[in-house]
């Protein structure tokens, strides 16, 4: 892909306007600071409070990075929430509190996650099933298998594995550092590698990319594998944080819809070909800020769900408006 094409792959915005990620970051930061001051909770503005805000980003941020790859190729993945539950339960069930079983558990989770990604990708590319239906079906299969085997917390993770969620260095949690490293790796892959160029080309014009020699089916399958692997990593993180795995942890977290919402809010087109990781993280930061604001203002759980649902709808509306403007 040429330098011009790479530049065109940036999040869509009007000429002369600020990039979407910067708008989201500035708006979220202003909302957080204003709420902390108005609610008379200055502790939220301390270093510890800011780190707590960043930690809210980790779970959704990891899987949203993977979802970005899938959306960029013009696909979608609704199986991630159930795969997160499977990963969390499988990890804690294998570990059973034994440090020696950490490596086998992590390997098993990543292998199964990759397998789910391959299945998703093949159903979409080879069976030509709409990705929304294909991944929803795979997700329901995963949830069915999980619910048939577990109905409560399964196993436990050793203290040494809990360091992933609760440990840190220099005051910065390992989980936040890990999210940052993952984001940089994803950004570098999309911007500086042939595979990244093929991701944008496939999402922008699949037929044209195929005629140019890009193996588009392989690119789509690879994007789904990456997304499933990040879902597996999210499940491992949640198992570390909860000290065990639960069959409802992914579903209750609404990681499927929210990961799609933050990708779209961050400037990635659902039709594919435009967007990037930093916009996605800006969307995750917005959601983390909203969670913190809800807590500071005492919004109850039911109102939170309503507001978050409204944000998901608004994200799709913004996408439709932006896509219409692009076509025009």
Task: Provide a descriptive summary of the structure in words.
This protein has a single domain (3-327), classed as ABC transporter involved in vitamin B12 uptake, BtuC (Orthogonal Bundle). Helices cover 74% and strands 1% of the residues. It contains 16 helices and 2 strands. A two-stranded antiparallel ribbon has the order 1-2. Strand 1 (168-169) and strand 2 (172-173) form a beta hairpin. Helix 6 (102-125) runs antiparallel to helix 7, helix 8 crosses helix 12 (216-242) and helix 14 (255-265) crosses helix 16. It starts with a helix and ends with a helix.
Task: Note the main attributes of this structure.
328 residues; mainly alpha; two-stranded antiparallel sheet; 16 helices
Strand line-up of the largest beta sheet: 1-2
Strand content bin: under 5%
Low-confidence stretches: 1-12
Helical/strand content category? mainly alpha
- How many E-type strands? 2
Question: Globular, elongated, flat, extended or rod-shaped: what is the shape?
Answer: globular
Oligomer: single chain
Q: What is the string of helix and strand elements? A: HHHHHHHHEEHHHHHHHH
Which CATH-level-2 architecture? Answer: Orthogonal Bundle
Number of domains: 1
Distance between the termini: 25 Å
Number of helices: 16
CATH topology descriptor: ABC transporter involved in vitamin B12 uptake, BtuC
Rg is 20 Å
Into which percent range does the helicity of residues fall? over 70%
What is the typical, i.e. mean, pLDDT?
Answer: 89
């Amino acid at each position: 892909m040429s330098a011009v094409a790479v530049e065109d792959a940036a999040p869509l915005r009007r000429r002369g306007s600020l990039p979407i990620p910067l708008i989201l970051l500035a708006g979220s930061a202003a909302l957080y600071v204003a709420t902390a001051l108005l609610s008379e909770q200055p502790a939220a503005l301390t270093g510890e409070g800011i780190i707590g805000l960043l930690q809210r980003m980790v779970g959704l941020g990891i899987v949203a990075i993977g979802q970005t790859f899938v959306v960029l190729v013009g696909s979608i993945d609704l199986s991630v929430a159930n795969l997160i539950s499977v990963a969390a339960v499988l990890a804690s069930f294998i570990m059973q509190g034994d440090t020696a079983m950490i490596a086998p558990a992590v390997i098993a989770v990543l292998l199964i996650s990759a397998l789910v990604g391959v299945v998703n990708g093949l159903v979409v590319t080879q069976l030509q099933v709409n990705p929304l239906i294909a991944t929803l079906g795979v997700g329901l299969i995963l949830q069915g298998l999980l619910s048939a085997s577990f109905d409560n917390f399964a196993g436990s993770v050793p203290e040494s594995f809990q360091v992933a969620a609760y440990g840190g260095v220099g005051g910065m949690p390992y989980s936040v550092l890990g999210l940052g490293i993952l984001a940089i790796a994803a950004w570098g892959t999309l911007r500086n590698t042939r595979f990244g160029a093929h991701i944008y080309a496939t999402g922008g014009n699949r037929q044209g990319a195929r005629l140019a020699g890009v193996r588009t089916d392989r690119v789509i399958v690879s994007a789904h594998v990456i997304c499933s692997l990040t879902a597996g990593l999210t499940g491992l993180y949640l198992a570390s944080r909860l000290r065990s795995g639960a069959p409802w942890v992914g579903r209750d977290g609404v990681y499927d819809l929210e990961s799609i919402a933050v990708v779209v809010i961050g400037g990635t087109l659902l039709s594919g070909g435009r967007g990037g990781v930093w916009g996605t993280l800006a969307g995750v930061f917005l959601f983390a800020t909203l969670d913190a604001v809800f807590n500071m203002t005492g919004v109850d759980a039911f109102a939170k769900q309503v507001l978050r649902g409204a944000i998901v709808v608004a994200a799709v509306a913004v996408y439709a408006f932006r896509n219409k403007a692009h076509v025009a």
